[in-house]
Write a structure and sequence with these properties.
Elements (H helix, E strand, L loop, with lengths): L12 H8 L1 H11 L8 H25 L2 H4 L5 H10 L4 H5 L13 H26 L19 H15 L5 H19 L11
Length: 203
């Protein structure tokens, strides 16, 4: 029974996002299976091109909605361009890559914070993926910058996002952040999976 003399502890946004996006996060990891599924250079290049299309769309949307302190220095496009060039793509081919369509609109800060959680959270698991890819003889050793974009600063960069999520947590708007995060996970899975309707380029 709740003690009326004790204040109710509020679950912060970071905790909710971690808990309530876990099924979508796990589904994406299992669908991609980047650790156990063998991947050749063409497949890896296509995967990086898809990530490029995602960041090409989501990063400007985040920058237009969130304070600069939360987005500056966090672009992944330069690392992706480097990796794609190392994998054999040409500059004009990278410039012509399709950007993802159908992302949820970031109509306010709550939605943008949910999106930021998805984008920045990927850097944690990315380091493990990058180490795995570097052991793959089919992939150039210098083509894994995207998966290790922050290097040794990954943990600190993630803590900055966690602190920001705690600061903005509000029971009146946290549901909007949750909805955006889950919608982005679902759309990203469609976009990244080859050989599916969602995985084909869209205008």
């Amino acid at each position: 029974m709740t003690d009326p003399e004790q204040p109710t502890q509020r679950t912060n946004l970071r905790d909710r996002l971690r808990r309530e996006t876990r099924p979508a996060h796990d589904a994406l990891d299992q669908a991609l299976d980047l650790i156990d599924r063998p991947i050749d250079l063409p497949g890896y290049t296509r995967l990086l091109a898809r990530f490029h299309g995602f960041h090409r769309a989501i990063e400007p949307a985040l920058a237009a909605t969130l304070p600069a302190a939360l987005t500056e220095g966090r672009s992944k496009l330069s690392a992706l361009r480097h990796d794609l060039l190392t994998c054999g793509m040409r500059e004009h081919e990278i410039a012509a890559l399709s950007a993802i369509a159908g992302l949820p609109a970031l109509t306010g800060r709550p939605e943008a914070m949910g999106a930021l959680y998805v984008v920045e959270g990927s850097t944690l698991g990315g380091r493990l993926i990058g180490r795995h890819m570097q052991r793959n003889p089919a992939i150039p050793a210098d083509a894994c910058h995207y998966f290790n974009v922050y290097g040794e600063g990954t943990g600190e960069r993630w803590r900055e996002i966690c602190d920001a999520l705690e600061r903005v947590s509000d029971p009146d708007t946290d549901d909007r952040a949750m909805g955006a995060a889950n919608a982005i996970f679902a759309r990203l899975q469609d976009w990244l999976m080859p050989g599916t309707d969602g995985g084909r380029d869209r205008d």
